[in-house]
User: Fold Periplasmic protein from Salinisphaera dokdonensis CL-ES53.
Amino acid sequence: MRAALTGYLGMKNNILAAAVLGVLLAIGLVVGGSYLKSAAIQWKSAERTVTVKGLAEREVRATLALWPLHFTVTGDALDEVQQRVNQQAGIIRRFLTDAGFKPEAITLTSPEVTDRYANSYGNQRPPSRYSAEATMLVRTQAIDKVKQAMPRVGELIGQGVVLSPNYNYRTEFLFTELEDIKPEMIAVATADARKAAKQFAEDSGSRVGAIRSASQGYFSISDLDSYTPDIKRIRVVTTIDYALED
Assistant:
């Protein structure tokens, strides 16, 4: 009788333990399922992004001009060559000051002298032994004065100045105030990117969320065209990842 009672109680305890274990497992599944669902939603949300590019362009006037006037003289003696360099440099300097350029904007490089007899012999020798090249450089913010004076360089040729047509000595117009317009251009590019993201979101039945990541491209500066090098086109492209939300 006692053995039967003991067996009954043991079986009852096993049933109770199994029931408790089942309840705990159910709770675990519910909690675990809720966690997995939340994780799945977060993972899905993390994957819902759109990558767009925003563009900003602007045309600006150059702020600095570099105008090199490269000239050549020849002679049979070094002192003669130096005198001719000084003479022609004086002609060019007077031309530039008459055109309205300040003296501090005009500099003369040291002449480069070449002995043309060094690699020539007999009848192949040039008529003059030495040649010297020098550059009178105008560095100025007076862009209009440079443009007005450039067509007048024929006056120098008429006075015996031999100007070099070498492309290495071409006039350059530069824009030096990029840092002043960078913030505004980045803002324009970002707004352009968000506009594109908004259109994509509307087409997909979503709305634009927060920025996930962004990268700014480099600023490019180029001439507007070959006829107006003093007008520059500045361009920047930004790449932005936006989250998409329901």
Remarks:
- The longest helix spans residues 2-47.
- Residues 1-38 form one domain.
